[in-house]
Protein backbone atom coordinates (compact mmCIF):
# COMPACT_ATOMS: atom_id res chain seq x y z
CA UNK A 1 0.00 0.00 0.00
CA UNK A 2 2.83 2.37 0.90
CA UNK A 3 4.50 1.78 -2.48
CA UNK A 4 1.24 2.40 -4.31
CA UNK A 5 0.72 5.64 -2.41
CA UNK A 6 4.27 6.84 -3.12
CA UNK A 7 3.82 5.93 -6.81
CA UNK A 8 0.52 7.83 -6.96
CA UNK A 9 2.05 10.91 -5.35
CA UNK A 10 4.94 10.76 -7.81
CA UNK A 11 2.55 10.41 -10.74
CA UNK A 12 0.47 13.37 -9.59
CA UNK A 13 3.57 15.45 -8.96
CA UNK A 14 5.08 14.63 -12.34
CA UNK A 15 1.86 15.40 -14.16
CA UNK A 16 0.90 18.59 -12.32
CA UNK A 17 4.28 19.88 -11.11
CA UNK A 18 2.75 21.11 -7.85
CA UNK A 19 6.04 20.72 -6.03
CA UNK A 20 7.97 23.18 -8.22
CA UNK A 21 7.60 26.95 -8.03
CA UNK A 22 9.13 27.56 -11.44
CA UNK A 23 8.39 24.57 -13.61
CA UNK A 24 10.07 24.02 -16.96
CA UNK A 25 7.83 21.67 -18.93
CA UNK A 26 10.89 20.40 -20.78
CA UNK A 27 12.58 19.23 -17.57
CA UNK A 28 11.21 16.64 -15.15
CA UNK A 29 10.64 17.77 -11.58
CA UNK A 30 13.64 16.56 -9.52
CA UNK A 31 11.58 16.02 -6.39
CA UNK A 32 9.03 13.97 -8.32
CA UNK A 33 11.80 11.87 -9.83
CA UNK A 34 13.25 11.16 -6.39
CA UNK A 35 9.81 10.15 -5.09
CA UNK A 36 9.27 7.96 -8.14
CA UNK A 37 12.62 6.25 -7.66
CA UNK A 38 11.89 5.68 -3.97
CA UNK A 39 8.66 3.93 -4.93
CA UNK A 40 10.65 1.45 -7.02
CA UNK A 41 12.89 0.16 -4.19
CA UNK A 42 15.98 0.65 -6.32
CA UNK A 43 19.45 0.06 -4.95
CA UNK A 44 21.79 3.06 -4.86
CA UNK A 45 23.42 1.82 -8.07
CA UNK A 46 20.06 1.40 -9.81
CA UNK A 47 18.96 4.85 -8.67
CA UNK A 48 22.18 6.35 -10.04
CA UNK A 49 21.64 4.57 -13.35
CA UNK A 50 18.00 5.70 -13.50
CA UNK A 51 18.96 9.34 -12.91
CA UNK A 52 21.74 9.03 -15.48
CA UNK A 53 19.21 7.61 -17.95
CA UNK A 54 16.73 10.42 -17.31
CA UNK A 55 19.47 12.97 -17.96
CA UNK A 56 20.55 11.19 -21.13
CA UNK A 57 16.98 11.05 -22.43
CA UNK A 58 16.66 14.80 -21.80
CA UNK A 59 19.81 15.41 -23.84
CA UNK A 60 18.57 13.13 -26.60
CA UNK A 61 15.17 14.85 -26.70
CA UNK A 62 16.78 18.28 -26.86
CA UNK A 63 18.97 17.19 -29.78
CA UNK A 64 15.81 16.24 -31.65
CA UNK A 65 13.68 19.22 -30.62
CA UNK A 66 16.17 22.10 -30.52
CA UNK A 67 16.97 22.26 -34.24
CA UNK A 68 13.30 22.46 -35.29
CA UNK A 69 13.22 26.27 -35.46
CA UNK A 70 16.52 26.34 -37.32
CA UNK A 71 15.27 23.75 -39.83
CA UNK A 72 12.03 25.66 -40.36
CA UNK A 73 13.94 28.88 -41.11
CA UNK A 74 16.34 26.99 -43.37
CA UNK A 75 13.52 25.43 -45.41
CA UNK A 76 11.78 28.79 -45.72
CA UNK A 77 15.05 30.34 -46.93
CA UNK A 78 15.55 27.70 -49.63
CA UNK A 79 12.94 29.33 -51.84
CA UNK A 80 14.98 32.54 -51.93
CA UNK A 81 18.24 30.84 -52.92
CA UNK A 82 19.49 30.51 -56.47
CA UNK A 83 21.31 27.28 -55.67
CA UNK A 84 20.75 24.51 -53.15
CA UNK A 85 23.98 22.90 -51.99
CA UNK A 86 22.79 19.33 -51.44
CA UNK A 87 26.21 17.94 -50.35
CA UNK A 88 26.56 20.67 -47.72
CA UNK A 89 23.03 20.02 -46.45
CA UNK A 90 23.69 16.29 -46.28
CA UNK A 91 26.99 16.87 -44.47
CA UNK A 92 25.21 18.90 -41.78
CA UNK A 93 22.46 16.30 -41.56
CA UNK A 94 24.95 13.44 -41.20
CA UNK A 95 26.82 15.30 -38.45
CA UNK A 96 23.54 15.88 -36.59
CA UNK A 97 22.53 12.24 -37.11
CA UNK A 98 25.92 11.01 -35.83
CA UNK A 99 25.55 13.16 -32.72
CA UNK A 100 22.05 11.78 -32.21
CA UNK A 101 23.30 8.21 -32.71
CA UNK A 102 26.02 8.76 -30.11
CA UNK A 103 23.52 10.01 -27.53
CA UNK A 104 21.10 7.19 -28.34
CA UNK A 105 23.85 4.60 -27.86
CA UNK A 106 24.71 6.11 -24.46
CA UNK A 107 21.06 5.92 -23.43
CA UNK A 108 20.66 2.35 -24.65
CA UNK A 109 23.83 1.29 -22.83
CA UNK A 110 22.47 2.77 -19.60
CA UNK A 111 19.07 1.12 -20.18
CA UNK A 112 20.79 -2.24 -20.69
CA UNK A 113 22.89 -1.80 -17.56
CA UNK A 114 19.87 -0.79 -15.46
CA UNK A 115 17.76 -3.60 -16.92
CA UNK A 116 20.36 -6.24 -16.16
CA UNK A 117 20.62 -5.04 -12.55
CA UNK A 118 16.87 -5.24 -11.94
CA UNK A 119 14.90 -8.24 -10.76
CA UNK A 120 11.81 -9.38 -12.63
CA UNK A 121 9.67 -7.88 -9.85
CA UNK A 122 11.42 -4.51 -10.14
CA UNK A 123 10.92 -4.43 -13.92
CA UNK A 124 7.24 -5.33 -13.50
CA UNK A 125 6.75 -2.63 -10.84
CA UNK A 126 8.55 -0.05 -12.98
CA UNK A 127 6.41 -0.84 -16.03
CA UNK A 128 3.23 -0.51 -13.95
CA UNK A 129 4.43 2.88 -12.73
CA UNK A 130 5.31 4.03 -16.25
CA UNK A 131 1.85 2.97 -17.49
CA UNK A 132 0.28 4.87 -14.59
CA UNK A 133 2.25 7.99 -15.48
CA UNK A 134 1.34 7.71 -19.16
CA UNK A 135 -2.35 7.41 -18.36
CA UNK A 136 -2.30 10.84 -16.68
UniProtKB/TrEMBL annotation:
Record keywords, A-Z: Signal
Signal sequence range: 1-20
Record-given protein name: DUF4168 domain-containing protein
Source species: Planctobacterium marinum
Amino acid sequence: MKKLLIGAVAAITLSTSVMAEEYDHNQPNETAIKILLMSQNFTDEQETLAIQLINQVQILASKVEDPQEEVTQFVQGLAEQDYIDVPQIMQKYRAWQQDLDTELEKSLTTVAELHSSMSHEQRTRLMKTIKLLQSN
